[in-house]
Every structure is written in structure tokens, then in C-alpha cells.
Specification:
The complex is a heterodimer of chains A (316) and B (293).
Chain A lengths: L1 H29 L5 H6 L5 H11 L5 H13 L13 H36 L4 H15 L2 H15 L15 H35 L2 H8 L4 H25 L1 H12 L5 H10 L3 H29 L1 H5 L1
Helix pairs in contact in A: 1-13, 5-6, 5-8, 5-10, 6-8, 7-8, 7-11, 8-10, 8-11, 9-10, 10-13, 11-12, 12-13
Chain B lengths: L15 H11 L2 H23 L31 H37 L1 H15 L3 H12 L3 H28 L2 H8 L4 H37 L11 H7 L9 H23 L11
Helix pairs in contact in B: 2-3, 2-10, 3-4, 3-6, 3-8, 3-9, 3-10, 4-6, 5-6, 6-8, 7-8, 8-9, 8-10, 9-10
Classes of the chains: A mainly alpha (316), B mainly alpha (293).
Amino acid sequence: MRVGLLILKRLGAALLTLWLVSLLVFILSSMLPGDAASEMLGQSATPEAVAALRLKLGLDQPLYVRYFQWLFGLMSGHPGQSMISGLPVAEIIGTRLPKSLFLAGLTALVSVPVALTIGIVSAIYRNSFIDRALNVMTLSMVAVPEFLVATLSVLVFAVSLRWLPALTIIPDVADPASIARAYALPVMTLCFVVVAQMARMTRAAVADQLDQPYVEMAVLKGLTKPRVILRHVLPNATGPIVNAVALSLSYLLGGVVIVETVFNYPGVASLIVDAVTSRDMPLLLACTMVFCTAYMVLVLIADVAAILANPRLARS
Amino acid sequence: MRKSYSLDAEALPQDGLAVAERAWKSLSISGRVGLVLVIFWLFIAVFGAFLSPYSPSAFVADDVFLPMSAAHWLGSDYLGRDTLSRVLSGTRYTVGLAFFGALLASATGTFLALYAAVSQGVLDEVISRLMDTLISIPSKIFALVLVAVFGASLPLLLLTAAIIYLPGSYRIARALAVNLNSMDYVEVARVRGERKLYIVFHEILPNMLNPMMADFGLRFVFVVLLLSGMSFLGLGVQPPAADLGSLVRENMSGLQDIAPAILAPAIAIATLTIGVNLLIDALPQSGNGKGGH
């Protein structure tokens, strides 16, 4: 009962935050020097033409009116039109979003098992040589920016070894081999940072459990180490691990911006970079909200996992 | 808690050498590697301009993407400029922006947190809510929005970095301050009738400094990663200025030849950020050596 209430509360807080985010980015975008109308018509436009377009775009309305129009449009799936291409923003994002989700999904599929293995192994062999080596390795991996990983992996696998294509061209036929070839470099790059982050958080979560009295009890009972880990520790660490996985996956949201651009991948993240370059505000705002929503969902999953994992809450 | 801080500045005046030696010995091997890297890059950032063999913007080489040679230690870039000189000046931009950006974020975060923790009530609520909102925008996306609206001049990039990493500092500082605020010795000071300002600066702040220094180091890495990434996208430091991220971007066409022009800035960024991370991890308060109960 209390758990359900707590989760509902978190959901409410997440929605409130998302609303505040929408308010913040809208106000920010309205601070752009010169408005959309003069931007669209260029410098040679007559004042009359600009005024007419302002009227047509509704820019003569006060800020709060425009905000609510935009917000309701966003919620009903009509976040306006792109200022550059003139196409509905919803349509542009609609064709790009599945591709980004596919990329993110593949990355999660690869990174989660690898990261959990590294994290659990280093927690079991805590403070041993292997743990310290893995610690230095993951610590160095999180410190390397994605664009370097992308650049260097292109250098090694596409330029030197010529194993993989440097740009991602989505194959027409969806056989596993060609998908693997096309996606290998971007997925590898994304995994690099995410795996390191996730492994570190998983290690912390499992190590935290290993410090609990019940583990000491199990060890004193004479159970073998693998049995203690698999039967006692892991079930209890599931919540914290899910929490760690969800939070680390949020690092993907930054990573895809670089990766999609480097590999010329037609997803939402490269769209957002295009929108910034061309100052296409309606598109930028909508993409920003997509990313913030994705982030809130991951944080919410992490929160709920942490709540469900807390036995003190679950019992009452 | 306080006994083994390895980089205590106040301990340096009396017999600094012995203290430095003890600090060095207390570090793990990876921590020493980190410290050496950090000192090296700070030195380059401050004095690099004096070591620069050529002007970073002068066209001095005979050809583009030259390999390493005696005249040009790190070869030439895509326009025939000296790569070593460009990396030296790029380091100054990268380290300078990150240092002041992180400093601004940490300092503002700490003071807002102190203010919120001591005053409590509505103001604490409002600031915390605002910070929660700011932290809910993925940092790269937030940076893109800010650059789209305000542009990418150097002061604005600095401000962008500070705004983005301010909420993280605030959260940590507030947690620390709230904890310290409920300590007995703070209660004693309050009963003694000390003013709020005195309590903040004499009782709470000094005890927050060490964890906030470690946090500052982390923010420094975050800003390096963020701004070099933005420059790599062409949305960060704008030409003719160039940070290390811009150097990787502008020399992308040298990737085919595996030119030092693209490898050198890449290695520079990686060793800089890895160095800071290794050093912070080796400091006592980061919980590395904290075992058992």
C-alpha cells in the first residue's frame, strides 16, 4: 500500500519536473535574439512582410499564450512545424525516433550483460588485483569522451583494418549479418562509456550487499562463495542493480548525440544537432522534450526499483 | 576523517617537502600516475604558450598532415600549421574553460546550498525545486539548447558549463551542509548566540571544503568532456580559437593518414581526463579504501 503510494508520488514528481522543464526550455528559446519570422525571411525582408508572418505564426501573442498553445500542441502530438523544411515536427521525429530507439536497444542488449559481469566479478573479488585493475580500467573508460572513442574506433576498424564501414548505412535487407556490420561501430562506441559506468555502479551495489550481516551469517554457515553470491546476494541486489542499470543507460542520451553525428546515423540525436545548427526552434524544442522524457522515464525506473528493493517499505 | 588528506594546502608552509613526500607515498600507483598527469597538463595550460615553437595560427609547414619531424615535433595540421603549437594553445582553452567553468559551478553551488540549508523554509524549497528541474535535462541536450539560443562565445560557453553542472554541486553541498548544520558543535555555536554568517563561514564551510574539492575535480572532467564534445560537433569553441575538441574535429580528414595532427589532441584529452579521474579516485574521501563495517 505504502509502496504504491510512494511510486505514485514519484510519478507525480516526475510529471511536475517535466512540466517545469518544458517551461524552462520554452522561456529560454523565446530569448533568442530576433524572432522566428525575421529569421525565416532573411535580412532583405520588408518590415510589412515580417509583421504579416509574425501575425500568421502567432508571434504577436504574449509569451504565456504561446507557451500554452505550444504545450497543448505538444501533448496532443502537434508540436508545430519545422522552420527550415516546413514539415510537421511530429512527422520528422516520427521517422527518426524508431531508429534511435533501435540503436539504444542494441546498445542496452550488448552493454547490460557485459557490465553486470564486470561489476559482479569485481565485487566478489573486492580489493584483489583483478578488482583494482578493473577499477582503473572502468575509471579511465568513463573519462574518455565519446567522440574520441568514435574517432579512434573508426581509425582502427575502418581505416587500418578495413573490417567495418566508417558510416552507418542502414541495410535494406534485415539479415543479422549486415545489421551487425552496419551497427558494430556505433554500438561499440556507445557501449564503451555505458559499460564502464554501469559496471562501477553494479560493483558498488553488490559490494554494499556483501557488507550486510546476512552475508556474514551465510559465510559462517560454511556456504561456498558462489552459492552465497548466487543464492543470497544477487536476489537482494536486484533492486540496486536495476537502479544502476537504468541510471547508467541515461548516459546513452548524451552519447547518441555524438555517435549519431559521427556515423551519420539518421536518428533523433543527429536531428537535434541539425536543429541547433539551423536554429530551427520548434524542432529543437520538441527533440529536447523527447530526450528529457526519456531521461525522466529512466530515472523513474531507477527510483521504482530502489523503492521496491527496500524491504522496510515492501513489508509495511 | 581529517588525518590523511594528501593535498592539504595549509600543511605545506612548514616543511613542505616532507609533507609532499608523505602525500606522494600515501597515493596508490594509479593515483601517482593521475597526479603526474594532472600536474603536467596544468603546467602546459599555464606555461604552454611560452614553450610554443611557432604561433598556433601561422602557416609554417611545407605541406599538410606532415608526420613527426625535428622541425615539427607533432607534424602539421590540415592547413599546414604546427600541431605542437596548436595542441599547446588548445590545452589552454580546454583546461582554462573547464577550470573556471567548474570553479563557477562549484562555488555557486556551495553558496546556494549553504544559503538554502541555513535559511530553510520556502527559499530552500524553491532553490531545490529549480535545481531538480535543471538536473533533469541531459547535460549535452541542455548545452545544445543554450548554444542555440545564446551562441557559443567563450564567456557564454563558460557560463553554459557552469549552469549545467551547478545543480550537481548544489545537491552534494546541500546534503553536506544539512548534515553539518545538525551537528552538536553547530548547535553549540548557535546557542552561544553566533550570527548565521559566522556559523556558515566558521563552522560549516571549513568542514565541507575537502569533499567539495573532490567534487570540483569531477566537475572539471565533466566540463572537459562536455565542451570538447561540443567543439567536436562544431558548436563549442569557434575558430580562430580552438580547444582540443576543435583540433580533433578540424583534422578529421587526416584520419586516413593516421596523422599526428589528429592523434595528438586525442591523446591530450584522454590523458588529461583520465589523470584527473585517477587522482580523485586515489584521494581518501572518495571511498576507495573504505572497507567493511
